[in-house]
Design brief:
Strand content: under 5%
Order of helices and strands: HHHHHHHHHHH
Structural class: mainly alpha
Distance between the termini: 49 Å
Mean pLDDT: 81
Number of strands: 0
Largest sheet: none
Helix content: 55-70%
Radius of gyration: 21 Å
């Protein structure tokens, strides 16, 4: 029997996994540890043998409930390997001075959630990871990345930007949603192999953008910062980069122009 989740919504409704996750857990629970570990190495959700991360979290927690430390450590390592793979895309070496250290700290803090669960098997902090793992993990690391970005303030004014009379400033941003969809990467569970390949192509293209454009894209589209604000105390893409909102819009316009070529 699959162990039910304990956490409840504010209205008192119990958290429930999707039916396909429940079915996958039932199947994988009957498999050997060797088979599970092999499946955990499969990265693409549409590939044969792929094990959803929600299931992997369940298996780690189940090992904790059974006090099976060797099984717990083996499964947690595979889960952390997946998380590290994700973080290498969002905490790139050229984006932060101490990117490797930041990734390590995030993974360490994430692993500590399971240590807490070891001490208290009835804890509910990890329940949502068994429902929407990508969303839960993104929420976990984004705040850390934002704080580091604010602390290091890696970019200042870019000489190629013009504050007055820029033609780019007047470019239509009607394709803004398209760029958001291109940059977002946490929708792998329902992606086809061709969509995954295209996603990888987009990320490679983002890495090749000039540093000022790449940073603006990351801050605005991935981390959710507003371009600018009338509130001087509010952290925005413009304030983090130390330039005006117009300059940020110019950078995003150039990035949009480049990334749209991938769709042709």
């Amino acid at each position: 029997m699959v162990t039910p989740l304990r956490k409840s919504t504010q209205k008192g409704k119990k958290y429930r996994r999707d039916s396909d996750v429940e079915a996958a857990i039932s199947v994988v629970s009957a498999q050997s540890l060797a088979t599970i570990l092999a499946r955990a190495t499969v990265r693409h959700p549409k590939a044969d043998g792929y094990l959803p991360s929600e299931c992997l979290v369940y298996l780690v927690r189940e090992a904790l409930r059974e006090k099976d430390e060797s099984r717990y450590r083996a499964l947690l390592k595979m889960l952390l390997d997946r998380c590290e793979f994700t973080l290498k895309r969002h905490v790139a070496e050229d984006a932060f001075p101490d990117a490797a250290l930041l990734r390590t700290e995030i993974l360490s803090d994430f692993a500590s959630l399971f240590v807490e669960n070891w001490a208290n098997p009835d804890a509910t902090k990890l329940d949502f990871y068994e429902i929407r793992f990508n969303k839960a993990f993104a929420a976990f690391y984004v705040d850390r990345v934002r704080a580091e970005s604010s602390r290091t303030r890696p970019l200042q004014s870019y000489a190629g930007d013009t504050e007055e009379g820029s033609e780019l400033e007047t470019q239509s941003f009607s394709d803004d949603e398209s760029l958001t969809n291109l940059v977002e990467s946490d929708r792998l569970e329902n992606a086809s192999p061709s969509e995954i390949a295209f996603r990888d192509e987009v990320f490679d293209a983002i890495k090749r953008l000039p540093a000022d454009e790449r940073h603006a894209v990351t801050l605005h589209y991935r981390l959710g910062y507003e371009i600018e604000s009338e509130d001087p105390s509010k952290r925005t893409v413009a304030s983090i980069c130390g330039v005006s909102g117009r300059t940020i819009r110019n950078r995003l316009a150039r990035a949009l122009s480049t990334l749209k070529q991938l769709k042709k």
